[in-house]
């Protein structure tokens, strides 16, 4: 038992609440079944919305097709703004060919002498033009906070509509919160003195966002929306298991295949007619078949 678990167990004993596993399961079931509240209407696609909101917050935005081009775009931005061509990068980005783009990088946590920091992001929120970054060994928070210039690589298939979807994605993919979750909406700013906005007061004074991805690729969100229109009841039953659709359509289709296989295994283990997994398998089969047809039609049209 870790020190953290030991402390929490002592707290549980102190407040006299047992059956932690059962109470946690009940809470998770409530969260999964709870309907979302009112959501804003998004005009246009999520990438365009995110770009518009990010630029309104004084970020600069560029779009490239892939990570190789992203390194070149970072070099271009630094050169055009007369900034150093040396940067500290999040270790998760170490495999990108930065040197070929003319940049000298160090994959580590940032220190106060670093002028440029380059990170990825866990996801981005179109509603507010916000990045969601998670702390960790491969994603130290200092890289986005200490340097005066922050460059972030934002995969277009990781742009979600709202903050609620961002947290749902975090729960679905990570399960537990990391030590820190940072939200970045443009350069650091303050209006403490005479209500005059000053950039860079508590963090980067420049934020450059590089959107990475092909907009012609169908997103998982668009595919799920089409599936929901075609089979609302089946999708409503599957949504708590599938989770918030993110990434490309191919990613969602592969996830449906994995979930179908798992449901089939559970159905076989039950071994009796009318078990709850029979209906689940049927739902997955029908929704997956529809998803493959819709994705194929989209690819043919594009």
Quick structural overview:
With 302 residues, the chain is α/β, with parallel strands linked by helices.
Write the layout of secondary structure elements.
Layout lengths: L2 H13 L4 H14 L12 H11 L3 E5 L2 H14 L5 E4 L14 E4 L8 E4 L3 E3 L4 E5 L7 H4 L3 E7 L3 E2 L2 H12 L6 E4 L4 E2 L7 E2 L6 E7 L7 H11 L1 H11 L6 H22 L5 H26 L1
Parallel strand pairs: 1-12, 2-3, 2-4, 4-7, 5-8, 7-12
Antiparallel strand pairs: 5-6, 6-9, 10-11
Helix pairs in contact: 7-8, 7-9, 7-10, 8-10, 9-10
Task: Describe what this molecule looks like in 3D.
It is a single chain. The chain is α/β, with parallel strands linked by helices. The protein folds into 2 domains: 46-212, 3-Layer(aba) Sandwich (Rossmann fold); 220-301, no CATH class. It is 46% helix and 16% strand. It is built from 10 helices and 12 strands. The protein has helices spanning 3-15, 20-33, 46-56, 67-80, 142-145, 163-174, 220-230, 232-242, 249-270, 276-301, and strands at residues 60-64, 86-89, 104-107, 116-119, 123-125, 130-134, 149-155, 159-160, 181-184, 189-190, 198-199, 206-212. It has a 6-stranded parallel β-sheet with strand order 1-12-7-4-2-3, with helices on both faces. The chain has a 4-stranded mixed β-sheet with strand order 8-5-6-9. Helix 7 (220-230) runs antiparallel to helix 8, helix 7 packs across helix 10 and helix 8 (232-242) crosses helix 10. The longest helix has 26 residues, at 276-301. The radius of gyration is 22 Å and the shape is globular. The relative contact order is 0.11. The model has no long low-confidence stretch (mean pLDDT 87).
């Amino acid at each position: 038992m870790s020190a953290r678990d030991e402390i929490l167990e002592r707290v549980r004993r102190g407040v006299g609440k047992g059956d932690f596993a059962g109470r946690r399961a009940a809470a998770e079931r409530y969260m999964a079944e709870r309907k979302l509240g009112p959501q804003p209407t998004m005009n246009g696609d999520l990438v365009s919305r995110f770009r518009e909101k990010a630029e309104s917050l004084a970020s600069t935005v560029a779009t490239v097709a892939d990570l190789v081009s992203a390194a070149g775009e970072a070099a271009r931005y630094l050169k055009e703004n007369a900034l150093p061509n040396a940067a500290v990068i999040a270790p998760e980005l170490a495999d990108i060919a930065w040197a070929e783009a003319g940049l000298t990088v160090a994959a580590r946590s940032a220190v106060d002498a670093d002028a440029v920091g380059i990170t990825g992001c866990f996801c981005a929120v179109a509603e507010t033009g916000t990045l969601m970054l998670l702390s960790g060994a491969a994603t130290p928070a200092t890289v986005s906070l200490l340097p005066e210039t922050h460059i972030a690589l934002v995969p277009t298939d990781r742009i979600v509509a709202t903050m609620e979807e961002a947290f749902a994605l975090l729960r679905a993919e990570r399960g537990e919160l990391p030590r820190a979750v940072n939200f970045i909406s443009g350069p650091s700013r303050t209006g403490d003195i005479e209500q005059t906005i000053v950039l860079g007061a508590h963090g980067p004074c420049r934020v450059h966002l590089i959107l990475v991805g092909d907009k012609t690729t169908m997103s998982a969100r668009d595919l799920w929306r089409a599936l929901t229109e075609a089979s609302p009841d089946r999708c409503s039953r599957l949504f708590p298991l599938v989770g918030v659709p993110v990434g490309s359509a191919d990613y969602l289709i592969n996830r449906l295949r994995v979930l179908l296989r798992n449901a089939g295994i559970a159905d076989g283990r039950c071994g009796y007619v009318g078990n709850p997994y029979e209906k689940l398998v049927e739902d997955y089969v029908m929704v997956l078949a529809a998803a493959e047809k819709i994705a194929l039609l989209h690819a043919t049209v594009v």
